[in-house]
Amino acid sequence: MPELEALADAYGRVRGPSSDEALDCRAQAARCRGELGQVTKALARLNGVLDAVRAVDGDGSENAVELRRDIGMPFLAQQRAAGRTTSWSRCTRTCAWCTARTTN
Predict the structure, then answer these.
(1) With contact defined as beta carbons under 8 Å apart, do 91 and 52 qualify?
(2) What confidence tens digit (pLDDT) does each residue in 68-90 have?
(3) CA–CA separation, 26 vs 12, rounded Å?
(4) Are 47 and 71 in contact, with CB atoms under 8 Å apart?
């Protein structure tokens, strides 16, 4: 992950912090954190990437929709680990990221 975050920083300096390359590296680093069980950090980082993608590409962009899915899965796992019985269908109906408008 440090390598992906360093690469994202380098892309940010060269191509801009909102470049596709920088955002892709940041998102991948966050996904790795989630896979390693660092769910809270992963969710925070994915939310940051989602905010940047929405600012550049809009809510309905393919990247924004993919990031919402990437946020939903660890969020659901975190809820289950905490003893909450949230179903995926309930999560997608109530989660702010999943219910955002998906049209440009």
Answers:
(1) no
(2) 998 988 778 777 777 766 555 55
(3) 10
(4) yes
Q: Percent of the chain having pLDDT more than 70?
A: 80
16-38 pLDDT, tens per residue? 999 999 999 999 999 999 888 88
Q: How many CA atoms lie within 13 A of 56 on its CB side?
A: 16
Q: b vs e for 45-67, b when ≥16 Cβ sit within 10 Å of the residue's Cβ?
A: bbeebbebbbeebebeeebbbeb
What values do phi and psi take at 16, rounded to 5?
Answer: 105, 145
Structure tokens at 26: 């940041």
User: Three-state SS string across the chain, please?
Assistant: CHHHHHHHHHHHHHHCCCCHHHHHHHHHHHHHHHHCCCHHHHHHHHHHHHHHHHHHHCCCCHHHHHHHHHHHHHHHHHHHHCCCCCCHHHHHHHCHHHHCCCCC
